[in-house]
Write a structure and sequence with these properties.
Two copies of one chain form a homodimer. The first copy, chain A, is built from 23 helices and 17 strands. With about 575 residues, chain A is an alpha+beta fold. Chain A has a domain of about 200 residues: Aldehyde ferredoxin oxidoreductase, N-terminal domain (Aldehyde Ferredoxin Oxidoreductase,  A, domain 1). In chain A, helix 11 crosses helix 12. The two termini of chain A are about 35 Å apart. The model of chain A has no long low-confidence stretch (mean pLDDT about 95). In chain A, a hairpin with a 6-residue loop joins strand 4 and strand 5. In chain A, strands 2-1-6-3-4-5 form a six-stranded mixed sheet. Chain A has a six-stranded mixed sheet with strand order 8-7-12-9-10-11. Chains A and B meet through helix 6, helix 15 and helix 16 of A and helix 6, helix 15 and helix 16 of B.
Chain lengths: ~575, ~575
């Protein structure tokens, strides 16, 4: 029987609750947003006792469906002040799903200065005081817990989360004992505010989740996997080059943020391209194509090794590569990979932090291109929480405020990732309107603007069709985020007519339902409106659905400007 | 003939313009807010080229009316994101008024890295490159300009303004060659963003402003001065103890913020009281009663000297004394006076900075009560702009964000001054609803809540009548801020029936008008609504008219909580 685990850190008590009817059919983002919207006062302090941290596996997590193991984390974000859902791969979603835990809700704040670990198993949750691992980086936590507890699922925060840095993330143990991250929005600070260093998830004794119609599920799951493998994006591009394939695509489109969003092309793009990344990894004996969760058939991740073949990092994404590589002008994959490793270990969002570094460079804190300076900043300042480290760790918006920088690429105080919205206007609409602050994953219009996904190309430099595109994608993305599916399922979903019906069939076969594809549209719309209502009650208006003023300046070399009016952007919400 | 001086820092050109009809009858805050609302895009970056910095003398400035020499500065605030008016005493308003300058509007931003000084005289404005004074503190600037130019009026920014710190202020030379400040809202950062180090105001060749009816003016001015001197507040309390008279009054009421707003009474209140301040100054041969502008009859300022009789600071206000003394628990007037001097010299708002220090203490940056640590922080970090200095200099809200503190006393990101709104609820309504962010001077309900000003006392601990009180005071305060009158004129205005008619008579006699007292009410209402409309267009909603969540916790020893609902607060705007 599905249940909800609730942990009250004020009273240090745990309970197991039945799933209320309105939440019974939900999972992932649809569920975390429903819970946060119902139980968290929108105007509360995000690091105070009234915020709650909610984890929910996707509706298909725990099944044999490929790429279905993403875990959603939700709360009020201390970075943006909005509602937040951030999802990650790794192993935790599948364990929670097999335990029958629809959601783990953590509320309250303990009185004293102690730290705690949560132990989740089929009996419920146990809160245990923790001392040994406090102050430790994420890799050390995962390693120590493996020794202590065996290969359980782990959610953990690093020093950044302990220090409640606004860009702190929550990391998830992956299948290799490394990690993946709930990166955006500072959810690691929320976990730190509740004084929880880690959550160990013990799936001992559980089996695969039950299926209402096993034969139907197997058939649909096969069709689904085939659709992913047949698509050129998920079957060829991503497995070959990882997300770093975007470096040359976005550079060619003139939308590659360079020198803190001053230019749209980077002269050293080849040094950081997906092609170079792949060659480097192969040459050194790393792994160029690697999955973040069991059952992944895309394998857009990789294992990056140094010149001696020693492990440096995995899950080195386009966004991190681009923002450090071109935007901070450090055209050096070794430095970028090392920085990625450090950010993972410290437990800080690599997108927010990298954009913050670009703003800091613009503010004169260190020179553009100073890769060793960035590594020193991460090692010495971020990890220790020096005033400079806390400044960077509080995100790009705050760095801009502290250093009087006017070119600050944020929406709702969350950093704009590695696509300049002047040259790829569809993603600009997503940045502006997303309920989460600037977030490319909320509605990845780049695929349609630049890669022809979804059939008819929407011209990246023109306004026509962008609002409708972003709206369609944001609604559809809620489906993926709620099912526990990886974002890239959006590619075959858009292009292969067998894909969405197979997803619907899997869900129906899992739960014995008779849902239609239209049901997902409704779920997307409901969830977006729920999230927006939370934000409005927290004080957000349409004036916050705007890009920063500097995007009105022309972007070299195309000369493109961000030319949407407020009224045009606000059409997004006409549904 | 009255005129407007306009300076464009992008083109480095200056012009003299006639006063448009809608602005002809305005001055001070009514005029700066009208200009900012008309000319500044509400969503612009406050440190970008689209913001404008506007100075306007009060409508009575330049006359012989006592206490009429306050200058208003207006802009979009980089600290709050709202419209901002901040006024100061000193000598500048009177020079500008005698020059016939209704407003000085500074717009644009220069291309390069150069710094400039503006020279204002009867011919207009000249922009001159400046190198010698860059990096210098405010006292050195004023001294150097006296040598260079003689005793002109001076507006200047210190290192904080040059570094565009969000709490940077603009200082005004006072009659003793010391300074007063446009303290709140970071207008010094706006001046710094325009790369203007100082503005020298040369009144050479000007005489007193013309009067339409000299005899009537003289008679009214006499009545006005008499009303001020007859009132126990402005005639006795303030001249004797300065604003520090409030220490014991507010402590007795249990609303004296202590240990970052944790308690409402301070055990060492006598160490920092107005009585102790006065005794200390007299004992050491300082001046316990001193005016900030020529023609001041209240003289609530003082000259604080050290044990050897050497000048330390003047204009040492209750708010600074209280926030450093009780809220940061540094019960030592010598340390507080030295800190005040340093903040004046660095050019940073002593309220915002002192509250930020309290939050930093709560965040573990330095211990409560560490006076020497505070002085070191100001001398070494603030002045040099180290990362820690920039953190403190960016205000209490940002310190809270960087150090994960939940007890952060700000409204619209501006620090709440030295009155706890739980125990003095009227001032809480002003904090919540002021168009400027938390600001006690926007509607000083403390006087009615605790001192009986305005007749019938409104119980500080009850909700009854507080919304109406704050509304009445905020409307009336616009009058004072627009006339160039000191805030304390509010005391005789409320209690002496001869005072407001005398003000109206002075204004009518100055300009040949036939205004009524009701006209001022209309001006107050129009100005508040103009300011609010700007804020709404910048994205502010009623959800921003709220006090921080922690004020729902009981305040020791009274146990008072902030218990206004949102709907009750929103009644403020029903006019």
């Amino acid at each position: 029987m599905d249940k909800i685990y609730r942990v009250n850190m004020s009273s240090l008590q745990c309970s197991v609750e039945p799933v209320p009817t309105p939440w019974a059919g939900l999972g992932g983002r649809a569920l975390t947003s429903a819970i946060v919207a119902k139980e968290v006062p929108p105007t509360c302090h995000a690091l105070g006792e009234n915020n709650k941290l909610v984890f929910a596996p996707g509706m298909l997590s725990g099944t044999t469906a490929v790429n279905s193991g993403r875990l959603s984390a939700g709360a009020k974000s201390p970075l943006t002040g909005t509602i937040k859902e951030s999802n990650a791969g790794g192993t935790a979603a599948q364990v929670l799903a097999r335990l029958g835990v629809k959601a783990l809700i953590i509320e309250g704040i303990p009185k004293g200065d102690g730290w705690y670990g949560l132990h989740v198993n089929s009996d419920g949750v146990t809160i245990v005081e923790e001392t040994e691992l406090i102050g430790k980086g994420n890799f050390a936590v995962i390693e120590a817990l493996e020794k202590r507890l065996g290969k359980t699922g782990v959610l953990t925060i690093g020093p950044a989360g302990e220090m409640k840095m606004l860009a702190a993330n929550i990391s998830v143990r992956d299948i290799d004992g490394k990690l993946r991250s709930h990166g955006r929005g500072g959810l690691g600070a929320v976990m730190g505010s509740k004084r929880i260093k880690f959550i160990a998830l013990d799936g001992e004794g559980t089996t695969a989740v039950s299926l209402a119609d096993s034969a139907k599920f197997t058939q649909a799951a096969r069709t689904f996997a085939q659709a992913i493998m047949n698509h050129p994006g998920t079957g060829q591009g991503l497995p070959t080059y990882g997300t770093a394939e975007m470096v040359n695509i976005v550079n060619a489109a003139g939308g590659l943020p360079t020198r803190n969003f001053l230019h749209g092309q980077y002269h050293d793009n080849e040094k950081i391209s997906g092609e170079t990344l792949r060659e480097t990894i192969i040459e050194r004996g790393g792994n160029p194509s690697h999955g973040c969760q069991s059952g992944c058939v895309i394998k857009c991740s990789q294992v990056f090794v140094d010149k001696k073949g020693k492990y440096v990092t995995s899950g080195l994404e386009y966004e991190t590569i681009e923002i450090l590589g071109a935007n901070a002008m450090i055209g050096d994959l070794d430095v970028i990979a090392e920085a990625d490793h450090l950010m993972d270990d410290i437990g800080i969002d690599s997108i927010e932090t990298s954009v913050a570094i670009g703003v800091a460079m613009d503010g004169g804190v260190l020179p553009f291109g100073d890769g060793q300076g960035v590594l020193r900043l991460l090692r010495e300042d971020l990890r220790a929480g020096t005033p400079l480290g806390r400044t960077i760790g509080s995100g790009a918006g705050n760095v801009g405020k502290l250093y009087g920088v006017t070119r600050v690429p944020v929406v709702k105080n969350q950093a704009i990732p590695a696509y300049d919205p002047r040259a790829i206007k569809g993603i600009g609409i997503t940045y502006a309107t997303s309920t989460m602050g600037a977030d490319h994953t909320a509605g990845y219009a780049v695929a349609t603007n630049l890669m022809g996904v979804g059939g008819g190309v929407v011209d990246p430099l023109k306004k026509d069709g962008q609002v409708e595109l972003s709206r369609h994608l944001q609604i559809a993305t809620v489906m993926l985020d709620s099912l526990g599916l990886c974002l890239f399922i959006g590619f075959p979903s858009a292009d292969d007519p067998t894909c969405v019906p197979a997803i619907v069939d899997m869900l129906n076969a899992r739960f014995g339902l008779e849902l239609t594809p239209e049901w997902f549209g409704g779920l997307g719309i409901t969830t977006l409106k729920t999230e927006r209502a939370f934000n409005q009650a927290a004080g957000f208006t349409s004036e916050h659905d705007r890009l920063p003023e500097f995007f009105r300046e022309p972007l070299a070399p195309s000369g493109a400007v961000w030319d949407f009016t407020g009224d045009e952007i606000d059409q997004f919400w006409n549904f």
